Amino acid sequence: MTNDELWQAVLAQVQFNVSRANFATWFRNTEILSKDKGEVLISVENSFSKEWLGNKYALLILKILRSLDKETKAIEFKVAPKKASGVSAVKETTRGEEEKEREEGPQLPFQEFTLDIKTNLNPRYTFDNFVVGGFNELAHAAAQAVSENPGLAYNPLFIYGGVGLGKTHLLQATGNRIIELSPKKKIKYAPSERFLSSIVEAIRNHNIGELKKSFREVDILIIDDIQFFAGKEKSQEEFFHIFNFLYQAQKQIILSSDRPPKAIPSLEQRLRSRFEGGMIADIGVPDFETRLAILKAKCEEKNIELDPKVMEYIVSAVKNNIREIEGALNRLIVFQKINNKAPNPEVAKKLLESLITGPKRMTNFRKIVQTVSNLYDLTEKDLLSTARRKEIVKPRQIAMYLLREELKESYPTIGRRFGGKDHTTVIYAWEKIARELKSNDNLLTELDLIRQRLYSEF
Predict the structure, then answer these.
(1) CB atoms < 10 A from the CB of 368, how many?
(2) Is the dihedral of CA 136, 137, 143, 147 positive or negative?
(3) pLDDT tens-digit readout, 298-356
(4) Which of 31, 40, 222, 337 could join 85 via S-S bond, C-beta 3.0 to 4.6 A?
(5) pTM of the model
(6) Residue 154 host element (H or E)
């Protein structure tokens, strides 16, 4: 395998672990400069990229490189601006480039898209590639109606459903369709955590008035995962005023949640009443036929052919999460890219075993503490101590989170393991990590790496 082929294979797997925006930002124009005595030298565009990749993604890159090339022992980043290479497929292609790609084949297993800076919308999400079935037809119909008549059809539009069922796709498809029909409309899409952070920052800097003014200027406001507003009284108050202004001005408001408004705890009654005053539509779990149709659509989108038996195996095993179906497909794409052949049913089952059935062996307290300590370059004594240094607090919270998630230990038991800490401290740690995982791609990558080590090296 040449250096270029090796790096393409690395990038293909990196895309599974980072967001599209992060991938486009930090891995653009990277390549392997040299590989000598087990040390791989990777070029980056500037010193800032070098520092960021070194601090945030070095462990991930090294792990992937070692899985592809057993001789790899270490990696180093070097500032060496060059022509676009490794992730040139990240940008949207022109018609001429698309024709070239059809002739030469894609450089990566699936195409990436750049977010629209003004709207935060990803053009990848459209109604055209949204598969409709009985589980989501009401939400889809309501979203289409809103896109054709924003502010007047259903306002607000509130869509709820479980994780990985297509809420974000549908919200962004609605925004993209509105732009297509009404290019002059001002649209702003934001995950709730980002929206909440902007409010907190504005309050801290005493410019909440300017923030509210900026949101009042939009024609369509789209907030994803509104359930994270629960318990945040000041933020709810500020959002209430923004909501009222937009609603009275017949500006469209679109919201999503993992549950209906009445089931969101600690949500102010006046906000719950506003949410319930529009159209509420749920997205359920797709049936077998719909899951198969979704998988076929994604195969067509990514220009890959799979054995029908392999597709049936995937959708039979993954029943409650469309995102996991795409994750399974991406894993098979990497195999096909590296081996230049499609996986047969037996190979597919082996490749997807950990994803579909989960790890067969349990871990334990000592293994979790050891793995977390090693990842963050700490001693086990540091992790279990009562020290409050910044470099220790986060890893300790992650260890507490994993003890709760992986071993199902009680909060008091976890507290006793960490120097007799009160159970409320453990609850706070668990909630903090769980909340950050919703929006922090770097933390998600770190947790994935820890889990891989827990179950692959046990």
Answers:
(1) 24
(2) positive
(3) 888 888 888 889 898 888 888 777 878 888 888 888 888 878 888 888 888 888 876 66
(4) 31
(5) 0.54
(6) none
